[in-house]
Amino acid sequence: MTTRAHNLTADQARAMQERRLTALCVPLKVQPPSDARYSGIHHACNEPDTWFFNSPKGPLKIRPSFQPGDVLVMKEPWGYHGSDDEPWPAYRASDDHFCRDDLCGHRWRSPVTMPRWASRITAIVRDVTVLRVQDVSEEQAIAIAGLFKWPLGYGFYEGPIRDARTRSFDSPIMAFRYQWNSKYSRALGFDGNPWCALADLDVYLCNVDQVKEAAE
């Protein structure tokens, strides 16, 4: 089991807070050849587990992006009130009024800068699937994109909470495709069908140091 940080956008953090986003999907850091076939997890005594691919060009081993049991400390866009000695965190996903008055000198900070103590969302990886992005099912797309069902189809919120826009799509896959292409470069675009890792999560709305208590 590994504890690691994972950066969220404000929209993703809101969806997790509302229990809509319960999975993560990321492209593999090393993309196998287009004709590769995933063969499973490679176990070895003298090296970490890897994802094993077969292709006409030869075997390929890739270090996993996630593994079952991994603990993810979710970081999100944030700021803080008070002094450096006694900071009080604010979160862009739910406190967007925080930076509306620049007289106080408040500003939103990158999730990369969020310290462990300020994180309010923790996730434990329950299961990991390696697949091509176009093989994501509708059920998986709903969990990854944090979608809700409404009369106009499937939607998600985009932008600051007070001025959020609702993006609406006819199907979960179309919504997932939009989000994927908004986040990743053309080389990893949905239409190119890159390999990805899909992690199913157990999400806890608390700091990582409180997860054991929350799970009981």
Describe, in plain words, how this protein is organized in 3D.
The protein is α+β, with helices and mostly antiparallel strands and 216 residues long. It has one domain: Archaeosine Trna-guanine Transglycosylase, Chain: A, domain 4, CATH 2.30.130. It has helices at residues 10-17, 138-145, 172-183, 211-215; strands spanning 3-7, 23-27, 37-44, 47-54, 60-62, 71-75, 78-82, 87-91, 121-132, 148-150, 153-158, 165-169, 195-204. Strands 1-6-9-13-2 form a five-stranded mixed β-sheet. A three-stranded antiparallel β-sheet has the order 3-4-5, with no helix packed on it. Strands 10-11-12 form a three-stranded antiparallel β-sheet. Helix 2 crosses helix 3. It is globular, with a radius of gyration of 19 Å. The chain starts with a strand and ends with a helix.
Mean pLDDT: 88
CATH class descriptor name? Mainly Beta
Percent in strands: 35-45%
* Low-pLDDT windows of residues: none
Task: Please state the oligomeric state of the protein chains shown.
Answer: single chain
What is the strand tally? 13
CATH fold-level label: Archaeosine Trna-guanine Transglycosylase, Chain: A, domain 4
Percent of residues in helical segments?
10-25%
Task: Say which CATH homologous superfamily is assigned.
Answer: Hypothetical protein
CATH structural architecture: Roll
Number of domains: 1
Strand order of the largest sheet: 1-6-9-13-2
- Biggest sheet details: 5 strands, mixed
| Cα separation of the termini | 19 Å
- How many H/I helical runs? 4
Radius of gyration: 19 Å
Q: Which structural class best describes the helix and strand composition?
A: alpha+beta
What is the H/E order?
A: EHEEEEEEEEHEEEHEH
Shape by Cα distribution: globular
